[in-house]
Design a protein that fits this description.
alpha+beta; 3 helices; Nuclear Transport Factor 2, Chain: A; 149 residues; 35% helix; 7 strands
C-alpha cells in the first residue's frame, strides 16, 4: 500500500508546483498590463527578457496580413509618455502552460484607449524563467476592430 501512496504524493506535489509556476507566469503578464495602465516604462521593460521580440500581425485591406516588429524600449517609451490609465489592455487567460523554464500564454484581449474600446485580438506569449523570474521573451498579437464585443 505504501508503494501506491508515494507516487500519489509525488504527483500531487508536482501539480502544486506547476500551479504555483502558472500563477507566477500570470503575475508577470499582469505586471506588463499594470505597467501599461500606469504609464510606467521602467516596470514595462522589467517584464521582458533582454533580447525579447515584440511583433504584431496587422491587416491591410488590399495587402493582406503582415508582421510589424517593435523594440521593447521603443514600446516602453511610447507607453511612458501617455497619461496614466490611457492604455488599458484587459485580457482573459485562455491557456497557460509551463514546462520547466518555458511557459506559453494565449490570452484574448480588449484594448481601451482613454476609456474607449480601440481594438481586440489575441496575445501569444513565450516566457522564460531566468535568474529566479519569469520574463517575456516573445510577444506576438493580432489586432482587429470588428468582432470585439
Amino acid at each position: 500500500m505504501r508503494y501506491l501512496i508515494f507516487p500519489f504524493f509525488l504527483f500531487v506535489g508536482y501539480r502544486g508546483i506547476a500551479q504555483d509556476q502558472e500563477a507566477l507566469v500570470k503575475a508577470t503578464v499582469n505586471q506588463l498590463f499594470l505597467a501599461m495602465k500606469n504609464s510606467d516604462s521602467a516596470l514595462l521593460v522589467s517584464c521582458f527578457a533582454q533580447n525579447a521580440i515584440l511583433q504584431t500581425i496587422e491587416e491591410k485591406k488590399d495587402a493582406g496580413s503582415f508582421i510589424k516588429n517593435e523594440k521593447v524600449r521603443d514600446f516602453a517609451s511610447v507607453i511612458g509618455k501617455l497619461p496614466k490609465t490611457d492604455a488599458d489592455e484587459q485580457i482573459v487567460f485562455d491557456i497557460v502552460k509551463v514546462d520547466g523554464p518555458l511557459a506559453v500564454v494565449w490570452a484574448p484581449y480588449k484594448f481601451y484607449y482613454k476609456g474607449k474600446l480601440s481594438h481586440c485580438g489575441v496575445d501569444s506569449f513565450q516566457l522564460l524563467y531566468e535568474n529566479g523570474f519569469w520574463k517575456i521573451q516573445y510577444l506576438i498579437d493580432t489586432r482587429r476592430k470588428q468582432g470585439c464585443e
